[in-house]
Design goal:
The structure is a homodimer of 338-residue chains. The first copy, chain A, is 46% helix and 15% strand. Chain A has 338 residues and is of the alpha/beta class.
């Protein structure tokens, strides 16, 4: 498989991107080509620091970078030679199977939707983020691609999320929940009540509403919501986890005895930290476009990039998109037309 | 001050409610009367277990209880002799100044709005929840009273939240943020963009959009959003914190060495736990009704009840409602009419 990697995206580009790419090229056996897209000089400089660069790693020059403050669709149209646009073009032109970026999320969504087009049966592509819970990974769709969206889209989100959970996390008949503010069908907003109705009729293992309290309980495999709510849930969760780890560190370094205690319990604390680390989950997938598209955190380290490339590879290996199209075709035609 | 306390609300009623009431009656000097409302027999039985019951503690019999699955407005209308309805009636009839309940949130909101009426200048009462952040308490409004609401209401939420933050947490010129999915004014939904506009023009210390990432950073005193989003943020945050403490406990008990470490660092771990404990924050206030109304967690222990009564007392002492009406009167008449 061939993966295009935006070398200029994220806070630590290109250094961490290149380092993650080198590791991926060394460790992921199915990878036949990993194309670093971006400023050739900067990328080469980073590559020079590695003794051995695997042959499958190549560079494609792109002279521009889409900055975080730019408007997504406009930036994609204007900066034709940006690393994101060029990386997506590689998939569009059949020179790569997947694209990975830690850059501008909106530009990735706009670029992939415009250039790669939607899969058959998909009205709007959606972002699937993965969250750790007490006993299994949770897929949250939509985590930000569609801040405002029709309740009917929730069915597509749920189907795409279920296929993802089934293929990547091996959940058979993934349990789907609708994010709302009460367990009963009638709780929530007009939109969630309408979505409840659509979800009940779809070929899904739909279990009804879930509340904020339930998100991290690990009783649901897929949670659906609009992109506004999903983005806030995702970022708030990261914010809480960050604050807790900050407090914990401060508390545990306040007296010599606590410091000694923390040193003895170090294994447990490290394993906690790893579990909470969003990087090991490989970023979020943009589901519903004709090509595999992985978007990782702006703060991505080389480790996050490695896992993002790994997830892109797994999605290709399991033919995620073929399964999505298949499952969406089972929807009633009336429900499928938006 | 005189406070009515729903003795039948919450998972651990009436035992924990009564225990919290006894402690409040003993420790809060300004309390002249604390009225336990609910089944007289059960309350008396609990009171019997205390050697000394302060004189200010009295009981008002109410024969019914509003159950969690009941529809709020309907339940309030039908169960006229429920503990929630009777407790609110005490405020309505001038026999109490504030009401506290760990019971049905929706019934408290509906009951207080119907019976106590709104304050002058308030279109819709809103729930203000308090969250711990890295360096100061954060007031989140609306945390669930108005799942669907007009963008213009955000200004009222912000003003009420600012008064609360100013009086109770002594923040001068509290910093207000609008919860959205990007820092720029244009990010978000039509509703948040409209709210941004209203907030910019209001007599507030408005700093613009805040994202989920910012919630626990401690750079904002008041965050406003609709009740759907607010409820999900609040409950998700509690869910994350709960999951993390669960993992931490499990990790730290896995080997004898980790156990020893945890024992040595115990002070730090306990102080972490306390900091994350929503109970010490005294529950949420229903702002905008003509009377002080505190709603605490269904899982409230006696400690939570004590703090809820304390917060009700502080709100009375600082004449929260008088200040809210004053601040709302500063709004442009055009902005104030909804």
């Amino acid at each position: 498989m061939r993966i295009a990697l935006d070398a200029m995206g994220g806070d630590h580009a290109p250094r961490e991107i290149v380092a993650g790419a080198v590791r991926a090229a060394q460790e992921l056996p199915g990878l036949t080509r990993l194309i670093l897209v971006g400023d050739e000089q900067s990328i080469s400089r980073e590559l020079d620091s590695f003794k051995h660069v695997p042959d499958c790693l190549t560079v494609l020059h792109a002279s521009e970078v889409i900055e975080m403050h730019e408007k997504p669709a406009q930036a994609i149209r204007r900066k034709k030679d940006s690393s994101i646009a060029r990386a997506i073009d590689l998939v569009k032109d059949g020179e790569a199977d997947a694209v990975v970026s830690a850059g501008h999320t909106g530009a990735m969504v706009a670029g992939a939707t415009l250039k790669l087009r939607r899969l058959k049966g998909v009205s709007r592509p959606a972002i699937a983020a993965v969250l750790p819970t007490e006993n299994r990974p949770l897929v949250l769709v939509d985590a930000g691609a569609n801040p405002e969206c029709d309740a009917r889209l929730f069915t597509e989100f749920a189907i795409m999320g279920s296929v993802y959970s089934g293929l990547i996390f091996k959940q058979s008949a993934p349990i789907v929940g609708l994010l709302s503010i009460g367990e009963e069908e009638l709780k929530g907003t007009e939109k969630t009540r309408e979505a409840f109705d659509y979800l009940s009729k779809a070929p899904l293992n739909f279990r009804g509403n879930v509340e904020g309290h339930d998100v991290f309980k690990g009783e649901t495999d897929v949670i659906v919501c609009d992109g506004f709510t999903g983005n806030i849930v995702l970022k708030t969760s990261e914010s809480v986890a960050g604050a807790i780890m900050f407090w914990l560190k401060r508390e545990l370094s306040q007296t010599p005895m606590r410091k000694l205690g923390a040193a003895l319990a170090r294994g447990g604390l490290v394993s906690m930290k790893e579990r909470l680390d969003p990087e090991s989950y490989g970023g979020a997938l943009l589901l519903g476009v004709n090509g595999v598209c992985v978007i990782t955190h702006g703060a991505s380290s080389s480790n996050a990039i490695f896992h993002a490339v790994r997830v892109a590879g797994e999605s290709l290996e399991h033919q995620l998109n073929t399964h999505i199209v298949e499952q969406l075709s089972l929807l009633e035609p009336e429900a499928a037309t938006l």
